[in-house]
Specification:
The protein has 3 helices and no strands. The protein is mostly helical. It has one domain: Metal-sensitive repressor, helix protomer (Methane Monooxygenase Hydroxylase, Chain G, domain 1, Up-down Bundle), CATH 1.20.58. α1 runs antiparallel to α2 and α2 runs antiparallel to α3. The longest helix is centred in the middle third of the chain and has 32 residues. The protein is elongated, with a radius of gyration of 17 Å. The two termini are 22 Å apart. One of its GO terms (biological process) is negative regulation of DNA-templated transcription. This is Regulator protein that represses frmRAB operon. It comes from Paraburkholderia piptadeniae.
């Protein structure tokens, strides 16, 4: 994923925020906070993870599938790769 180097710091910052959110979930559970507090923390971290996924997925589509030069036998056609990525997202 050499193309992610351009956005490396932004991606790492997102990952660090997600890590902090997951740690907040752990603390909330340890402190036996209410269900609504825990659910809010989980929802926030899921949203952050989906945001990270969207950024990386969009970059992958733009870099490797839409604007990419065709490669002989690399990983199938760009269309097939896109379908595979989208299917994996919904699992």
């Amino acid at each position: 994923m050499s193309h992610t180097i351009r956005e490396k710091q932004k991606l790492l910052n997102r990952v660090r925020r997600i890590k902090g959110q997951v740690e907040a979930i752990e603390r909330a559970l340890e402190e036996e906070r209410g269900c609504m507090d825990v659910l809010q923390l989980i929802t926030s971290s899921r949203g952050a993870m989906n945001g990270l996924l969207a950024v990386v997925l969009e970059d992958h589509i733009r870099t490797h599938l839409v604007d990419a030069e065709p490669h002989d036998g690399a990983h199938g056609s760009g269309t097939e790769q896109l379908i595979e990525v989208v299917h994996s997202y919904f699992k």
